[in-house]
Amino acid sequence: MTATHVVKALMVSVDDLIVPKEIEQAKSKSSKVNDEILQNSIRLTGIQQPLIVITLDSSRYYLIDGIRRLNVAKSLEIDEVPCVVDHGVDDVKDRVEYQNRIRFILDEHRQDLLPTQRAKLIRQLQKTFDMTSRQVGLYLGVTSGTIANWRLIEKVIPEMQESIDRGELKIHTARAFASMTEKGQKEVWEKHFDAATTMSGGRLHKWIRETYPPGTRADMYVAPEKVIQQLNRDNPDRKGKKRAKVSSNKKASLEKDLESKKLEIEDKKAQIKSLEEDVNAAIPIIEALRDDKELWESLPKAVHADFEEFADRYIA
After folding, report:
1. Contact 153, 165 (CB under 8 A)
2. Cβ-contact 84, 8 below 8 angstroms
3. Rounded-to-integer distance, Cα 178 and Cα 153, Å
4. Secondary structure of the chain in the HEC alphabet?
5. Degrees (nearest 5) of the Cα angle 65, 79, 32?
6. Given phi > 0 = left and psi -120 to 50 = alpha, else beta, which region is 130?
7. CA 228/CA 231 separation, integer angstroms
8. Quick one: what percent of the chain has pLDDT higher than 70?
9. Residues 6+ apart with CB under 8 A from 290
10. Cα(130)–Cα(128) distance, integer angstroms
């Protein structure tokens, strides 16, 4: 099953929408000023962003997102509101679990989610919708590297997971334990808790492998041979090499070039972000075109090829 599990917006009577207590209580977090701005906007232009709901039966819907828009609609005596219906997933039987997952998808930065809960939801999302880390990243608006960091939490022992939830052990620091066995993780954690929670990720990674060499402590690592190969690549033989002397003028020139390169990198990052936004905006449009056979056939053949190439790269 893919992530395209919502249908086009439809008008739903406000009387047919059921609001859960936890979402009803969340409305108190919004400010009066923001509520007034939203009310004026809806009064002038209507509800531009549909509410998210799931189906309870043939005529009633359960609200997942959009409590403020719904309350404004009621205050303005609007009888119907635009909604998109999430079909749900077959493997989720518990409504609260599913609701929490959808709320997470809508806002991946919720402060009330512990890192371990976030990791579990990411795993469920990947399993349920058969998505790659890259697809999940695009879906949530983060990089695939961020997804990998979140999933990493489930690869460390429970003691470390609890420490991550408490904010003692940083997620990126925990990467130092990713290739270690459960026994190895426990030994380092029990003997060197202070080092694990105070060192930077890169420094900790190097320190563990120097303190517990994979050549003599193979039991500490899942694949000690690979760790040895990685260490050899990271530490090439430097004998016979001398550092070249650099004049002050040359150094100033290099620093200037470095600053220029930094600016170029920032510019490239901005361009990449803009392209990612364009791609994400184009995906639902191209999907809709492909689903509408009549409209698809009306397009030039050359456009077909371009759109199919886009779909193969970003949708399939």
Report:
1. no
2. yes
3. 9
4. CCCCCECCCEEEEHHHEECCHHHHHHHHHCCHHHHHHHHHHHHHHCCCCCEEEEECCCCCEEEEECHHHHHHHHHCCCCEEEEEEECCCCCCCCHHHHHHHHHHHHCCCCCCCCHHHHHHHHHHHHHHHCCCHHHHHHHHCCCHHHHHHHHHHHHCCHHHHHHHHHCCCCHHHHHHHCCECHHHHHHHHHHCHHHHHHCCHHHHHHHHHHHCCCCCCHHHECCHHHHHHHHHHHCCCCCCCCCCCCCHHHHHHHHHHHHHHHHHHHHHHHHHHHHHHHHHHHHHHHHHHHHCHHHHHCCCHHHHHHHHHHHHHHCC
5. 55
6. left
7. 5
8. 74
9. 296, 307, 311
10. 6
Residues of the chain with confidence (pLDDT) below 50: 1-7, 28, 89-92, 106, 108-112, 238
221 DSSP β-pair partners: 180
Q: What is the pLDDT of residue 58?
A: 62
Beta strand pairing call for 61-65 and 51-55:
antiparallel
Under 8 Å between Cβ of 80 and 16: no
pLDDT tens column, 186-244: 999 999 999 889 988 888 988 999 999 999 999 999 988 988 888 887 665 545 556 66
Which amino acid is it at 174?
A: A
Report pLDDT for 181: 95
The pLDDT score that the predictor gives to residue 106 is 47
As a residue count, the chain comes to 316
Distance (Å, whole) CA 122 – CA 87: 19
CA dihedral (69, 75, 81, 83) positive or negative: positive
Q: Which phi and psi angles does 157 have, rounded to 5°? A: -65, 160
> Chain centroid to CA 47: how far?
27
